[in-house]
Amino acid sequence: MRKDPVHLKLSELLDANAHFDLAARGTTNHCPMALVALAEMGASPVRLQAFFDMWEREYALSAPPIDAVIARHEWARHLGERAAFGALRLCFQDWIADAGPDPVITTVLQEVPFAPATQAFHSLIRLAYGIEAGHAGEIAAGLASLISSHLPIDVSPEENRTARRADAGFDHVAQALSGTAFEGTSITSRLRAVGADPRFGNAVLAPPADVALLDDLARATIGAYWRKPDFTLLHTVTATRAARIVFAQLPDELVKQLLPGLWIALCAAYATVGRLADAEANIPDLAIDWNDVCGMAVASDDDHVIKMTYTCFCEHRRDPSPLYLASAARLVS
């Protein structure tokens, strides 16, 4: 992590965030992710502290006492054990201190089924922000969240035909499940319902084979979000960028093994929203630029506004598209 005042404050607050539970009042703990995004968009140390204080006051839950020690060779035994989050975090943090983050991330993602939909994609997103910040505690927390709240979607589309493009694959799944209202008050509960529906396994196509899948997913998810600014679709945009950050730490062969799991999770998310109306992406002429939009996001206390704006900003720098600025401007407004 860089040693300028902003990133020193960020490191201090990410350390302090270890006192918060994985859950928060009515949500999950978005605080560390929002702090990283704020710092990268130019927030001052004072602003970072103010956001942390707001989160602690209004949303944070205290982490329960950790009364067990998980050895490094035993972490996989706690797959899906929500109460093990704190002990898993300490196990991974200690392991990272000895071996560095990349070997630990690689080992964990090799040894258990990849479940990017876990915690409504927030486990993957938190891991990515930890990597981006270079913060061992947050990398460990992201891995611990992936393991303790593990939500696999056990579908294999290998025998199905191949989608031409990501957006066509999303639309095919949504059309096949059209008219079904997936019950649940959270993204996670609706993802579980989709994963358990046998029609989903029959409908999900194999991922596009002749394109760079992450790039195609990035275009498809921002295109869908622009057409319908749905809360679940917002998470598909941020999750796709998170996967890019995580995969950059991994061997190419492992990435090839993990990509289908990401594809299935995003298809499931799209299915919970339903088929989008056919529409052209009419993008208005905007009188504001990225400096304006990022400035408004930095002033916001809405963690999803902060993270989505930052994601759009980063993705636009990687692969420029007017949809990113338009989507972020609409969100902060």
Features:
single chain, 333 residues, mainly alpha, 3 domains, 3% strand, oxidoreductase, Questin_oxidase-like, DUF4243 domain-containing protein
List the helices and strands and how they pair.
Blueprint: H1 5-16, E1 20-24, E2 27-28, H2 31-40, H3 45-58, E3 60-62, H4 85-99, H5 101-111, H6 122-133, H7 136-148, H8 166-176, H9 187-196, H10 198-203, H11 213-227, H12 231-247, H13 252-273, H14 290-299, H15 303-318, H16 322-332
Antiparallel strand pairs: 1-2, 1-3
Helix pairs in contact: 1-2, 1-3, 2-3, 2-6, 2-15, 4-5, 4-7, 6-7, 6-12, 8-13, 9-13, 11-12, 11-16, 12-13, 12-15, 14-15, 14-16, 15-16
Keywords: Oxidoreductase
Pfam family, one: Questin_oxidase
Protein name: DUF4243 domain-containing protein
Report on this model:
- This is DUF4243 domain-containing protein.
- The protein has 3 domains: 5-148, no CATH class; 166-273, no CATH class; 290-332, no CATH class.
- The protein has helices at residues 5-16, 31-40, 45-58, 85-99, 101-111, 122-133, 136-148, 166-176, 187-196, 198-203, 213-227, 231-247, 252-273, 290-299, 303-318, 322-332, and strands spanning 20-24, 27-28, 60-62.
- The longest helix has 22 residues, at 252-273.
- It has a 3-stranded antiparallel beta sheet with strand order 2-1-3.
- By secondary structure, it is mainly alpha-helical.
